[in-house]
Amino acid sequence: MSKLSISHSEGIATVSINNPPSNVITSDLINEVNAFVLSLKYDRDTKIVVFKSLHPLFFLAHLDLHVINGTTAGQAASIEFNHMITNIKAMKQLSVAVVDGVARGGGDEFVMACDLAYATENAAFAQPEIHVNIPTGGQGAVQYARRMGKNKALQALLLGNDFTAQQAEALNIITQYVPKSEMDEFLAQVLGVIAQLEIRNILMYKEIIAASIIDEDAGAELELRYFLERAKENKTQAIIDAFIKHGGQTDREAKDIQGIFVDTAAELAKSFNG
Amino acid sequence: MSKLSISHSEGIATVSINNPPSNVITSDLINEVNAFVLSLKYDRDTKIVVFKSLHPLFFLAHLDLHVINGTTAGQAASIEFNHMITNIKAMKQLSVAVVDGVARGGGDEFVMACDLAYATENAAFAQPEIHVNIPTGGQGAVQYARRMGKNKALQALLLGNDFTAQQAEALNIITQYVPKSEMDEFLAQVLGVIAQLEIRNILMYKEIIAASIIDEDAGAELELRYFLERAKENKTQAIIDAFIKHGGQTDREAKDIQGIFVDTAAELAKSFNG
Amino acid sequence: MSKLSISHSEGIATVSINNPPSNVITSDLINEVNAFVLSLKYDRDTKIVVFKSLHPLFFLAHLDLHVINGTTAGQAASIEFNHMITNIKAMKQLSVAVVDGVARGGGDEFVMACDLAYATENAAFAQPEIHVNIPTGGQGAVQYARRMGKNKALQALLLGNDFTAQQAEALNIITQYVPKSEMDEFLAQVLGVIAQLEIRNILMYKEIIAASIIDEDAGAELELRYFLERAKENKTQAIIDAFIKHGGQTDREAKDIQGIFVDTAAELAKSFNG
């Protein structure tokens, strides 16, 4: 794989995208991303996948304009691009886009296909397709509609204007704006917490959330079923016992629940090693 | 009932929760809340139920960890807790949580089960269950998904981090942040307006809103049906006549519609007494 | 038509509403709006319809209180009002409300029926119907529920309080707050961009958005179908060729995509004239 450099560390795969000269989403890149994402299906070690760009200006510019045409090859490549979006959305791992440059069109759609997205002051997000006589092709309009409501979505799609990271956060295009100077520390903290979870926990919450968005009652039923099953596990009892031993269910919780969790983890590590 | 002190005044029941030492949601408290909420079904005088805490630090800490296990009693208590959430959601009265302390896990779910929620600078909201090997069990994940969207919900559920009242307002966990120093006056004003409505009005709008969330067209149809029925009532005509007499449909409305409503109420009280 | 003055310019119809003394939504006005909106069905020149008010205080005060009653005429007029709302929502043109005054009840519902809404510091939005013993009758409660969520909607409908333009933007009642001093320039810029699109583009995005709100997967399928069809058009190829010629898919895009679009348009105009 030449356009993706992938490194692994403590359950986190970091995928750096490099497709010169302008990080356009070409067929080659689509094929590499699809191959990588599909390979994760049977990966038991990777919990989190972080997508970054090595380009100084672009996260991902957009879908290669050379495939947007009526040729058999063009139509097939466009469909592969669309599949890439649905493949990313279907990942069992937590997918995270870290955006420090421009993400328009398919680049914006790539970002929204990820579970979480963090972006800096160098980021820009847009769906300007309509000015090239086409609609969005990777769920851009779908996601805008569902994330910002009919009216703001329609305005954004007809204008095709750029949004800053702060605007994108307010409009739910991304999860959070993070200044570039704080991004590394922010990611270390957030991903450090999540990487300690079992991957089935990530999956469970993705599943409950997806069900709840479609049907509130169905989501509630699924959630309760998981709750009752999980309550029965020995692991749950071990954590709860240690948590209570270190101040759970007392006033210590009010101001120092993190401290209780730290002591709980230490207690559990001790029992495990002892 | 020993954990709930309930006072009644002008259609408003104020429920103060006191379950020492840390306002944990124990089986006893669940049973008392369920009994009280179910007793309201045939209550014709109570329009609004306000839930407060007497604890200096906690609104409600969370579900009692001693019932989160595989025992018959534990599973039954967890289900009763879940029923408490659905019972609160199904109340015909307007339910209002006033939060001046920590509300995590089941406490946060209790807050979201209420129709309205106001919180101070002392409040904290979180769903940290995943760090105890369980998902939320009282619709916490369901509500997060529907209120803040997939991405922000997933981040909040995997991190389990606290939110301030201002953050909780922005994420639709609560209705509004209100500084503690202004809370009493704020509640007197807001609940004073709502307590003057008939309880069927509260119910009608809850019903239209619930229908509209599921299906826009069905909500619109239900709304129009209610509108046409209500337009026929003598009460409607009496209010409209007094409203017009005092400046309704003139420029006075633009800057002083509240004054017209005050004059209208005085006019109606006079006719009623006269 | 005496209550609407309509001017046409470059694909934009500007409708100025003038119904003295207080821009109440009377049966006459409803009939004029309905006739105009239905006439647009076969209009091939008008892409955008802008609704403004000529009244110094009111955008639209609310539905005429004289039709809110149990008479046959009153009920028929109320239903016509409701149809006006659904007719506006069903327009193929882009509908835009420009609000520089009070819009309560039916006025607020008129604003929310439009695709886009911009409002100044003189605007006020409210659904105070419940204080006249009726619910909203033009999808006010439906729209509040879907735009601001159950809790904030219920509070707003039971209180009936005014919202400023900034608050209305945050609650998705309108698209954007624009200071009055900047409104003309803002509209010229925004509508200037949109008026250059074909009307089928506006329709296509309205359709994809409507489908996506109801069902994410159905929206995605529809979007992809449109994308593949549009990719085949000669117009698409001509724009893409000119776009690439002027720096598309290079680093120029990062900071100057607008410049590329300007050069692209000039190139296309040249070929067309040449």
Automatic annotation (TrEMBL), chains A, B, C:
It comes from the Bacteria. It holds the Pfam family ECH_1. GO terms for molecular function: isomerase activity. InterPro entries: ClpP/crotonase-like_dom_sf, Enoyl-CoA_hyd/isom_CS, Enoyl-CoA_hydra/iso. Coiled coil: none annotated. GO terms for biological process: fatty acid beta-oxidation. PANTHER family: ENOYL-COA HYDRATASE, MITOCHONDRIAL (PTHR11941:SF54), ENOYL-COA HYDRATASE-RELATED (PTHR11941). Belongs to the enoyl-CoA hydratase/isomerase family. This is Enoyl-CoA hydratase/isomerase. It comes from Shewanella halifaxensis (strain HAW-EB4).
